[in-house]
Structure formats: C-alpha cells, structure tokens
Specification:
Chain lengths: 309, 309
C-alpha cells in the first residue's frame, strides 16, 4: 500500500492528505438544516451532516490529493450513527480513488489488536459470510504495548495490501513529556527507540521505493526531531500532522522528506475543510461554496509544500 | 467515582470486574440462531447476538459484582451495529446498578481527546440538545501523548463523577519491550514514570479512601512489578487484567492490593463469560445455562481472590 501512496503523491505532485475531522461548528447552515430536518436534533442528524459535508469536500478535492485521513474521534463522539458516518466516508473516498488513512490510534494486547485489525483492515466472518466492516487502507496505531500488539496487523498488510502508521513523535506541544524521555545511559529519546522498532517491523514490508508499509506519525511541530528521524529511518514513511492550524510550517516539515523529495505525507484538517471560515478565503467563498474554498486551500497547501521540496 | 467503586467492592466483598468481551465463538447456538434469523448473517446480527448474550450474563451476575468492563474492540469490529451493541450493553449494565469501565484504550492530542472525553464520559450538544452518546463511568486511556492528552477528561471527571484508568504496565508477555525501558541514568522503567504522572494527575481527584479517580492498568501477569507499583503509588487504584485465561493467578496479583485489602479490581473475561465452554463447568451447565455457569465462575473467582486478600 505504501507504493500506491507514493505513486499517487508523485503523480499529483502533492504530498497532502486532507484530514476529514468535521465538527458541527464547521458545517454550513444549509447542510445542517437539511440533516436535522430529516433526522431531528439527534446523533443521526449530526452524522448525516458530517457525511454530506465530507462528500462535497471529497468531490471538490479528490483529483488533487492522494489521500484523506478521517479522525474517528470526531465521529465516534456521536455514537453508532457517528461511526456509520465514518464508515460511509471511508467508502465514499475509496470509490473516488482516494487512499484512506483511518486515524484511529487504536491498540491493545494481541488478541484484542486482532479484533481492531480484522475490523479496520480485514474482514469479519459471520456464519460463513465475509464482511468488510471499515475498509481503511491504513490505520494509525499506538506502540505502547510493543511488538506483540503490532503483529496482528501483519496478515492483512500482506494479504490485503494494507498499512500502518505508528505513533512516534506526536504533534502536541507536550508530546516530549513521555516521548522524549531519555533512555538508558546513552540518553536517546524514547521516540527514537519506537522509531527503530518500526523500522524493524517494516523490514519485511518494503516496497519499490524502499519505504515500508509500516510508517510513523511524526509531528510537523518538531522540526529538528523530524529531520533527525528522517536520517535515522530511511525506510520509514512519515505521516506528518501539525501543519497549518496547529502551527507547523512548510519549512518546519521539509526535513521529513528525503533528498528525492519523498518520504512523507502532510495532513491538514481544519485548514482545508473549514477554509471557508478562514478570513483568507471567506471574502471569496460563501458558506455554500465551502467545498470550493477547500479546493483552493488544497491548491495553496500544495504550492506551499512544493516550495520547500 | 472511585469511592463508589470501592464501596461496591467492599459491600460485595468482591474485587472482580467481568470483562464483557464477547466473540461469536462464545455465543450459544440458540442465541445466534435467533439473532441471525431476525437480522440475517450481518453485522447487525452479530451485534444482536452480543447484546442478548451480555444481558443474560449481566442478569445472572449483577448482584455479585461491582462492575463490568466491555472491551470495545470486540464490538467495533462489527462496525456501527457493533458499536450500538456496546452502547446498549453499557446502558443495560448501568440500569442494573453496575459501574461500567469502557475498555477503549483511546487517546490523541488534546482537541481530539476532548472528543473522546465528551463522547464517552460526557455529552454532545446538537443544536441545543444534550445527548450522552456512550455513558461509561470509567474509560481506559493510553498515556503516550502525555499530560495534555489526559487533561481533556478532567472536566467530566469533576462535574459528572467519572474516572480513568491509564495504561501503565499491560498484561501482555511482551509489554516490557517499551514499558520496561530504563529511563535516564537511574534506570527506572518507563512504566514507573507513567505511574508517577498518574499519581500527579490524580492528586486533585482523591476520594475518601485515599484513592484517586485516575487509576492505572497493571497486569496480573507481572507480580513483582504490580507489588512495586502498589508501594510506589499508594493513591492510585489498579485495574488488573490478565487473571485466568491470560495466566495470572490470585497469588500473582495479591501485591496489587494494600494491607487493608483494597486498591485493585481484577478483570476476568473469557474465564467468566465463556465459562460454560470450559471443562471445569461444561459437565454441570448446558449451553442454554451459560449465564449460570458465568455466575458460578464469578463465585469461584471471588473465593479465589478472597483466599489471598
């Protein structure tokens, strides 16, 4: 799956992933009105608004971007209806040819990780019927439980062409509290140890660009650490959150790419999906043109990233 | 919420939490037949089977146990229908007076953690309507993103009497790979640092037994570490997985309790909910008596734990 992602990035000359992390405060009134009219002021109403919003953004951007990354928490907070909107968003994006990174940050002991693996990357068997419940291409996972908690994903990675992004150095300002803790007498930070584990796990999953199907989440908000990790982990592809609304600039994340200008995909969520609410775009696009504002924000982000690559 | 949990444990003389982690292979045929007849061989069919199974187990055990701990992965793998069965299980258990620990192991950067907090412990607002999507009393969370990722839960802990269990030392055999890494020149393991952070976070949330609403997940499969953590963290209550099917014995986890015999709640999942499939109980209970087998397994576990306390 990493080869397909890199090919799409190369073809479109755009290492941008659109974070589909809707909030009700971002949804234009006309979409909310219709959803709440049909479903009431309910969880199903919120879910319907999210799906309609996402579909329009996907329609307006899919020809420019390799991938989308829905953040499951934004959907899960609206219960089962919200989860269905997440699942429907995944399906809609895939139908449009997009690669889908499910930002779920799951993990657990092996038997439980297997359930997440089957649900998100694989299939479940119900009395002989095989059903694909979620269908993402990649998911994000948490490394705290070690190799045992990652191995349950390997089968679907191999047999169904799937991938992972494992948390290494997250974009929050305080990520260093645990992730930068110095290990042993040499004092390397914990996140480097995690990065090296990812490199080891991914050795059996390297594709034709030298990158493996097990990538790392490395925040744009920590430029020095990103650059250091890029050197340390030449085979590990990075998913880079933190650009834009969280404060990371194109210059900050340039070090996450290698000399050939590959090695990372950069997420922007609010900056793209709520572009019409940003004063940079709001004079030009009305609320019912929100998706066109998102398209313009994608073009601007692409230009900004290509400036430093 | 920790006071309520401790009171229930004391009243029932039973520090057992039943892990409601159903799998289709555990569900008796008569329940599956009915569910698949009504819903087809679908995700909704699996979800209906889980809910019916859980309800019968809750009915047969609620007077003996303080709490249940549904593992969300087992439900999430069946998509939105599965999530609804999780939510319905939470509601059913609460209606029976049980404390519910949602074993969700979520976490993310603060703005996203807020979504998990609102969804699982709080309410969401939809056009002025307040809806409680999940309704657990406690959830489990992952500490890798640091203090910033825990603070979003504090408001609901304070205002809605909720609690957390943060992963410290998990029950899997390989948990030490990351969790035991020696920190700095003194070489204390990472999980101790995480434990000390939990103690700090919980200082503002201590109840009348001296324990705080922010507990720690400490596996029964690591007896020495459990005992060491109990000494190190006298104000942190432990959620102890790994008893029974995972290999932890009552003796192994005795060190997780303090001298007064409090300080921990011990989870058993398969050992209780699939007791009727275990040869210890299968001669005595037929598949349609599965819930009575679970009741007997709870009584046996209670006796086993009280033997060492």
């Amino acid at each position: 799956m990493i080869d397909k992602l890199i090919e799409q990035i190369q073809k479109l000359q755009n290492p941008t992933v659109v974070g589909l992390d809707p909030r009700l405060s971002m949804i234009p009134e006309h979409i909310k009105e219709k959803a709440f009219e049909e479903h009431g002021k309910t969880l199903a109403g919120a879910a319907a608004a999210f799906l309609a919003f996402n579909q329009e953004i996907i329609d307006a951007t899919y020809d420019l971007i390799p991938a989308v990354k829905p953040q499951v928490a934004m959907y899960e907070m609206y219960g089962a209806a919200g989860m269905q909107a997440f699942i429907d968003t995944v399906a809609y994006a895939k139908k449009k040819g997009l690669i889908v990174i499910g930002d779920v940050k799951r993990n657990d002991i092996a038997s439980t990780a297997q359930a997440y693996s089957d649900g998100h990357l694989g299939e479940v068997e119900i009395e002989g019927e095989l059903i694909e419940p979620f269908g993402e291409d990649f998911i994000t996972v948490n490394p705290y439980l070690g190799t045992e908690s990652i191995e349950p994903y390997f089968e679907h990675m191999k047999n169904r062409d799937k991938g992972l992004f494992v948390l290494v150095k997250t974009s929050n300002a305080g990520s260093g509290e645990i992730q930068d803790l110095p290990m042993g007498s040499e004092g390397h930070p914990l996140y480097e140890t995690v990065g090296q584990l990812i490199d080891k796990w991914g050795a059996a999953f390297r594709g034709s660009y030298g990158f493996s199907d097990i990538g790392a989440v490395v925040g744009a908000t920590h430029p020095e650490q990103g650059a250091r990790l890029r050197q340390l982990l030449p085979h590990v592809f990075f998913l880079v959150p933190g650009y834009g609304a969280q404060g990371g600039t194109a210059e900050d994340l340039a070090g996450c790419f290698n000399r050939e200008g590959i090695g990372a995909i950069v997420n922007s969520s609010r900056g793209i999906i709520a572009a019409y609410q940003n004063k940079k775009y709001s004079h030009q696009f009305k609320p019912d043109e929100f998706a066109q504002a998102s398209r313009q924000a994608v073009l601007d982000m692409k230009a900004d990233l290509n400036r430093v690559l």
